Amino acid sequence: MPAKANALKISRHFTESGKDPFDNLSWSKKDVEIRNFDGTVAFSMKGVTLPDNYSQVASNVLAQKYLRKAGIPKKLRKVKEKAVPSWLQKSVPDLKAMGDLPESDKFGEELDGKETFRRLAGTWTYWGWKHGYFASEEDARSYFDEMCFMLAFQMVSPNSPQWFNTGLNWAYGIEGPAQGHYFVNPKTDELERSVNAYEHPQPHACFIQSVSDDLVNEGGIMDLWTREARLFKFGSGTGSNFSKIRGDGEPLSGGGMSSGLMSFLRIGDRAAGAIKSGGTTRRAAKMVSLDMDHPDIEAFIDWKLTEEEKVAALVSGSQHLQNHANEILAAIQAHPDDDSKFDQRKNRSLAKAISIAMQAYVPENIIARVLELGEQGYTHMDIETYDTSWEGDAYSTVSGQNSNNSVRVSNDFMQAVLDEGDWDLFWRTELDDAEEENRDPEPCKSIPANDLWDKISKAAWSCADPGLQYDTTINEWHTCSDDGPINGSNPCSEYMFLDDTACNLASLNLVKFYDDETTKFDTEKYSHAIRLWTLALEISVLMAQFPSEAIAQRSYDYRTLGLGYANIGSLLMRMGIPYDDNRATSICGALTSILGGVSYATSAEMSSVQGPFPRYENNKDNMLRVMRNHRRAAYNVPSDEYEGLTVTPRGIDSNYCPEYLLSAAQNCWDQVIDDGEKFGFRNAQATVIAPTGTIGIVMDCDTTGIEPDFALVKFKTLAGGGMLRIINQSVPVALNRLGYDSSQSKEIVDYVIGTGTFEKSPGINRESLIRKGLTNDIVDSLESQISSFTSLGLLVTPSTVGADFCTEKLRVKEEFLDDWNFDLLAHLGYTTEQITESNDVIFGRLTIEGAPHIKDSDLAVFDCANKCGQYGTRFIGWSAHINMMAAAQPFISGAISKTINMPHESTIDDIKEVYMDSWRAMIKANALYRDGSKLSQPLMSGTVLKVDIEEEEMMSDTLVSTEQAVETMAKALPTPDAVPLARKIVTRYIAQRRKLPNKRQGYIQKAKIGGHNVYLHTGEYADGTLGEVFIDMHKEGAAFKALTNAFAIAVSLGLQHGVPLKEFVDAFVFTRFEPNGPVIGNERIKMSTSILDYIFRDLAVNYLARNDLAHVKPEDLKPDIVRSEGEAETEQNLNSGLTPSGEAVDGHEIQLTLDDMDVATADTSSFQSSVNDLSTTNAPLLSGDSAIVKEAEKFGFEGDPCPECGQFTLVSNGSCLKCVSCGSTTGCS
């Protein structure tokens, strides 16, 4: 369709006609890398052309996540199309021009950001032009240029599916087989099935799906699991309300009783956990919600809490069982008289062990089984033990862990809580019958409302679920209530609309519209961007395909959009305004009002050209009522002026809002009402506030969504690799805004981030380090590296000083060289006080509290979501989070994705207060997280449990330890020095060694972990079971290489003496120490937490068929409709290592087998230590217990490693987590 004279006219604010939009920016080629926490490379691309305004982190994430890696033709040609300008025509591979190119050179990857930005902007412009959205070709060109510039200048970003999918067909002619998607043809208004995977892209991230009370038919329970699977497989998120499903014990029409909702939820939860989201994360992006009057509401509220308690029981109980069973067996083996081993009257140790086990509730049949095994000669009982790792078997055994869970509370329920009244629960069939018979339903049960309120609050305090969705508020702001109520939401709770609909998101970077010099926010450019991006999201609905017929039809009928913003926390700091301040909430309200008002005004403008959304007339009265209420909030009218609201909003307080912002915030809604009454609206919803995880990093946002900042000190990734500590860039701007001069500002910044030099350091400085034995050159080297470290303890180590120098000059024992917990400064004689004092000067205190010159009245400007560093005491209270959400909510079509973070010491009553205040503030949904409430999360510093008791005091005098068994046997042996012999009998020769054949099968596997080459060589028995392993760390130091050799020998001896491989797998999978991170060269395993984790994952996959420990399933290695043969081959080429059936390369030396070695005389001098030397200081690094984790927590990170890049840089992101190093997120954006 050619241009329409009455269509949209597009002005230019950022570009000039006839000039390339990218000419306004400077560009350069960058080598982009994403590195693991230990500095090893996880991802790398050379020569990527990007704007200079992109930081290294933003460049890394854009290149890794969003630049297309395969299938880009080296030569393109335009496809002529009637009425489409030549510059806007689609492109396809020019096969003729590529004919002379080698096959491997015909297709490549996107290496220029301009290609990617044009791919997105061109596709939107192309579809908009073809369907008559632009008044002229010049308007279309203006739109294309403006959109290109905004993408390149990081002003706005769409959600991830747009980056992934949009424009691959338009820009490069990429095609693929259909994936079962549907779309409504905009020319015929008819539903059609897609015939090409790329012609209609899939730009939507958020879905809401219905589920009916039917087991197997379309739209029913089992069908939902299939529909969810289709979305999870491709990385999207979905939510459903399950309130239609009958409760436990509810009568069935054919007789019998329903098995209840929870039984089906467990099935769906396990299905989601098995499929995962996008095939990469353990937890799928899923929301499960339930109405408060459902018969199973009590079980649902406690679901996640109960399941986490099961995990705790599995962890403690399995270890408990293992210990007691083997103490019984040890007592049997230690008894010297074979004839009376099982006679409890003579073997008192056995009697005591059995008695203690029974007192500890070990089941009698387990005790009997242990005794029977002992009679058959068994000396050890294999009982699988568990841990609280999120990825562990304990969590995978229980349900309720693969979704966000929310309960839908109505105003009636909240009032019942306040009135201390009862709350009725209803059979689902009774509700249907009562509605059909036009009568009030009869409850199946009545419960005090406060009992349910207590349950909700205790569960949320304990495990952060369930969240609350305020049903009455949601539906009183529903624009299409005549077509049914809003029942559910997407996983992050920002998209709330009718079932079987979808939403595509985009967010504006607020800081890009603020001028630090004039201290003004440019409302004109902001409004212009909102208008153009509302159009982009509308066109995205027009061009999109959807995973089901129902979603395709309803998305066409309602055309819901999700435009939002990010970086308000950074904006407020730059303005010199605290997050917890009336000015902040008023400014937030104004900016959100402009967002909602201009977006709806644009929707009305589009409706004047294209007509309103198909279901508009049926919902016109309600939609206009909602628009009038939005306008009333902008003018902050009295509560009694709102239409149809029982809980009224907090409007913009004109006493605290700048006049120019207030005027813009009000005028746009005047236009909405005027144009909406004339033309209607093109879209039923227009705005949400999403968490902006990955896209926030791509835009270089310091803060995401509506969140405040999480720390004052951050890490900047350097182009050549490594990390640099920097002050939050909003801090100097804020100090200048608050009136501090440059000298004062420097002193304050130095206090926070440190001087970065040994000069003037009080205890540890150049002079003292030289006196301790370091050379000038070493001190110079250490000084040059200060900015890349976080503390003196991590800076001054054997690896940075030099291993040889440490052993030869500083008398450091060789076994300490690779010990992460070894304190070289303490070894040199520095006291804890000296280290702390110098650390504070050189590396800063990480908080602005106590800084020179800073006024107490200004401290609040720099408050963050968490306490800053180990000295910080201030943080933003939960009431400020609620106030900020309450300021934004009156102007948002959907809701706000945000988690209210609460300190560990918060009480259950605090939880109740947060939930109650959120309801009173007219917030639509709320999720909260009390630090440390997740069983799998390490407790934060300061809340670690400590036991002040000696180990000897903990030892029950009735338990038989291995040492006691040795002592008992030694006394019975008729030799003068029986202890060594007894120890050998008890600990070494209880099992008989099974010799390997002289000629044996096996495999050699090469891989690279964190930049370290690892060779694994196995030897097998004739029956194919594993009998020996060898590990070689190629070109590593002698100590570490000897350690791995000796460890392999120890494991091999264990295998040959009958220790099951499963025991080793359970013991060493998930151990965490460096090197770790992405695995290159192994087809099945792509990430490891340590060398041992990788080794035993590989052995478990190949010898135990433990596919659950692999990251890539066997079937995923085959090309399919999503992964072409070419893509599969490309990925295979990237993996340079050997598969189990491959051959050794790189001159790898095959080691001697155990039978070729004298184990007793093997050279293990580089790792030997006596039994008395062993302590927990030599244990592997575990999450929450290592120096690295503690450093991460000190900087405001969560303390867990990113599952993709391995760095400890995860932060809260709405109701999800994001990694600020690589951009990975557990949400949809």
Q: Main traits of this protein?
A:
12% strand, 42 helices, 10-stranded mixed sheet, globular, 5-stranded antiparallel sheet, 1229 residues, alpha+beta
Report on the structure:
The protein is an alpha+beta fold and 1229 residues long. Helices cover 38% and strands 12% of the residues. Strands 7, 10, 11, 12, 13, 16, 17, 20, 23 and 24 form a ten-stranded mixed sheet that branches. It has a five-stranded antiparallel sheet with strand order 27-26-25-28-29. Strands 1-2 form a two-stranded antiparallel ribbon. A hairpin with a 6-residue loop joins strand 28 (1077-1080) and strand 29. The longest helix has 32 residues, at 303-334. The model is unreliable at 277-282, 938-960 and 1119-1185 (pLDDT under 50).
Mean pLDDT: 85
- Gyration radius (Cα, Å) is 33 Å
Q: Tell me, what's the shape?
A: globular
Number of strands: 31
Count the helices. How many? 42
Helix-strand blueprint:
Layout: E1 27-35, E2 41-51, H1 56-66, E3 72-73, E4 76-78, E5 91-93, E6 107-108, H2 113-130, H3 137-152, E7 156-158, H4 160-165, H5 168-172, E8 182-184, E9 191-193, E10 206-208, H6 221-233, E11 237-241, H7 261-275, E12 286-291, H8 297-301, H9 303-334, H10 348-359, H11 364-375, H12 393-397, E13 404-409, H13 411-419, E14 422-425, H14 428-436, E15 445-448, H15 449-463, E16 467-470, H16 471-476, E17 501-509, E18 514-515, E19 520-521, H17 523-543, H18 549-558, E20 561-566, H19 568-574, H20 582-610, H21 616-635, H22 659-679, H23 694-698, E21 713-717, E22 723-727, H24 730-737, H25 742-753, H26 766-771, H27 776-784, H28 792-795, H29 798-801, H30 803-808, H31 824-827, H32 832-842, H33 878-888, E23 899-902, H34 908-920, E24 925-930, H35 951-954, H36 962-972, H37 979-987, E25 1004-1009, E26 1012-1020, E27 1026-1033, H38 1038-1056, H39 1061-1068, E28 1077-1080, E29 1087-1088, H40 1091-1103, H41 1125-1134, H42 1187-1194, E30 1210-1213, E31 1216-1219
Parallel strand pairs: 10-11, 11-12, 12-13, 13-16, 17-20, 23-24
Antiparallel strand pairs: 1-2, 3-6, 4-5, 7-17, 8-9, 10-17, 14-15, 16-24, 18-19, 21-22, 25-26, 25-28, 26-27, 28-29, 30-31
Helix pairs in contact: 2-3, 2-17, 6-7, 9-10, 9-11, 9-36, 15-34, 17-20, 19-24, 20-22, 20-33, 21-22, 24-25, 36-37, 39-40
